[in-house]
Amino acid sequence: MPKEYLPLKVDPFRFADNATRLHGSLLIKNMERLCPSLVADSGNAEIDIQFGVDGHGIRFLRGALTAHLALQCQRCMEAFDYEITSDFLLGIIQTEEEATDLSKTYDPLIVKGNDLFIQDVIEDELIISLPIVPMHALKDYKVMLPLAAESNTAADEEKENPFKVIKLLRAKRDK
Q1: Does the pLDDT of residue 142 top 80, yes or no?
Q2: 80, 93, 102, 132: which has the fewest C-beta neighbours closer than 10 Å?
Q3: Percent of the chain, pLDDT > 70?
Q4: What is the pLDDT of residues 18-33, one digit of tens each?
């Protein structure tokens, strides 16, 4: 089944008034701000977006995305697959003043004019979902790190009491 790609730009106010739903993919390689953080720019982001208007008249964009990104582990410097699954709820507004009045349930999405570039919204969500320091779990390493090996063996061995010498000296003194 061929992948359905999302439109480049939409009118979010019209889409919200009509309760439009979009489902499709965006190419990772087209996300210029995200790609420098990746090892490879292959793959897609799968997106499901629902526009609507809530009971208070606030236009919103509710979305869910899933993407597999190739990141570089900062422990072993190897590439690894990082899955991002994110749900977001954005209140569609036109000015920064409206953002202060927006309910705390929504993150503000300021739209100038009537054009919203869907890829920019999805790229922002992917960027904020990236880990600060990308690393895969210790169990997934192909190479055993020296510090990890030492910490495991040190925990397994019984630690010697540093006050053992004092105990021996007291025993000699008491005899």
Answers
A1: no
A2: 132
A3: 87
A4: 999 999 999 999 999 9
Compute the distance between CA of residue 131 and CA of residue 84 in angstroms, rounded to an integer: 10
First and final C-alpha spacing in the chain: 88
CA atoms within 13 A on the CB side of 167: 5
Please give the distance of CA 99 from its chain centroid, rounded to a whole number: 24
Which amino acid makes up residue 131? P
Judge contact between 129 and 84, C-beta under 8 A.
yes
Rounded CA-CA distance 124/128 in Å is 6
Q: Are 167 and 105 in contact (CB under 8 A)?
A: no
Note whether 34 and 126 are within 8 A (CB).
yes
Secondary structure (DSSP) of 33-44 = TTGGG-SB--SE
- Evaluate whether 105 touches 56 at the Cβ level (below 8 Å): no
Domain ranges of the chain: 9-137
Question: Residue 50: is its pLDDT beyond 80?
Answer: yes
- Residue-wise pLDDT tens digits, 59-109: 999 999 999 999 999 888 888 999 999 999 999 999 888 888 888 999 999
Look up residue 150 and give its two tokens: 């030492």
Structure tokens at 2: 């061929």
Length of the chain: 175
Among 129, 128, 127, residue whose Cα is nearest residue 33: 127
- Give the per-residue pLDDT at 1: 43
